[in-house]
Amino acid sequence: MLQINNLVVEIDGKRILNGLDLSVKAGEVAAIMGPNGSGKSTLSYVIAGKEDYEVLDGEIVLDGQNLLEMDPHERAAHGVFLAFQYPLEIPGVATMTFLKSVMNAQRKARGEEELTTPDFMRRVKKAAERLHIDQEMLKRALNVGFSGGEKKRMEILQMALLEPRFCILDETDSGLDIDALRVVAEGVNALRDPKRAFLVITHYQRLLNHIVPDSVHVMANGRIVRSGGKELALELEASGYAEYKEEAA
């Protein structure tokens, strides 16, 4: 599904990704772990199309198409979704208005008819109940005044409604207590599908206790330096990243 080949990326003249290679199959949950500064979040931003990053070499191919040739909104329409580590507050933009706008924009890009208001409301209500999102949250401005856990639930709600093909979770566990972590993980697990893949970026094993990965990749100095099964995350939890930093240097 996703194939990254020799990806080299800089920002402000500083090299962040150094010939990174990664493959994620349809239906797979791939976890990326690594120390601070290894390039994990940069990888997520470059896949999604965030500006300011300069791609010097390589390609990112999703379902046969090079994402680097697409604008961010085209990547989203192609099925890419990024759940941010720190979701933005957007004062003045009602949550329900935002959700309906993005859902219909995606449908229009795919040549589908826009949702009627009753159909939209039914979809939101069903997904919100599964994620324990109070209806009062949906009446507020997007993420404004939300706790960290509420913001993450709202991100997963968007993912559930948009039904993307490739989902990137950038340190979704950051700032969550154990109850919020379980709710978010349940929402993610409910979306696991043979035709959908996930890239889960995290520092810690605790998230992977709830979202069990099919593969784990260690990232250091802008490259994948080791790959393995879910047991690799337990090894990292016990031993840390020091040896991988040395290997990548």
TrEMBL record:
Species the sequence originates in: Chelatococcus albus
Transmembrane segments: none
Family per similarity comment: Belongs to the ABC transporter superfamily. Ycf16 family.
InterPro entries tied to this protein: AAA+_ATPase, ABC_transporter-like_ATP-bd, ABC_transporter-like_CS, FeS-cluster_ATPase_SufC, P-loop_NTPase
Keyword ATP-binding carried by entry: yes
SMART domains named among the record's database cross-references: AAA (SM00382)
Pfam families: ABC_tran (PF00005)
Name the UniProt record assigns to this protein: Fe-S cluster assembly ATPase SufC
Keywords: ATP-binding, Nucleotide-binding
Gene name, Swiss-Prot/TrEMBL: sufC
Domain ABC transporter: 2-246
UniProt xrefs under SUPFAM superfamilies: P-loop containing nucleoside triphosphate hydrolases
